[in-house]
Amino acid sequence: MRRHNQIKNQNKTNELTKTFVEEILKFNKAHNIVGRFTELEINLLDILDCKSILPHTKSAKNVLDIGSGAGLPGLIIAIHQPQTEVTMSEKNKKKAYFIKKTIRTLQLTNAKILDEAITPKLITDNKFDIVTARALAPALKIIKMSKHLLSKEGKFLFMKGAIEKINEEVAQLENNTYSYTIHKTKNTETNRHILEITQK
Description:
Shape: globular
CATH architecture: 3-Layer(aba) Sandwich
Number of domains: 1
Strand content: 15-25%
Structural class: alpha/beta
Largest sheet: 7 strands, mixed
CATH topology: Rossmann fold
CATH class: Alpha Beta
Distance between the termini: 43 Å
Number of strands: 7
């Protein structure tokens, strides 16, 4: 019975992911929200890439994805982890509209869009277990704009590229305030690392 439920859930997840990719391609024709033009490209360079964050988010009650763009990785987390509440912030109105529309299309009850920039003055209904961002800005810049939104035991999970660049970014962190771990991902298509930062 348990295996049957797992297969059923996996089928639903695959179906939602496929529809998500179709929605990106459809919207992309008119609005160019991602720099990819085929299903294969989106699956390899966006979907698989964003799935690499899932092992690090599975225990989170709520996640904030800053500068979510087309909902990457926010919508991937919401699709794969129905128990996690995902808030995506996107100040670009066109992209925010796409996320909102896709949440409705996929009938996701655990996802919502915040169509404004994250700033130190922004107040949200709750604090987040995880604050994430993919290729948005240097780690310290994102921390400064969002650290007031992180729960006491929470962590930052940033999707980053080359290790050399990450080393430059972590060198800017205050050693007595933050500790970090760099996770190499298994995705061979992108030079992806997950930078995990916690407050001491």
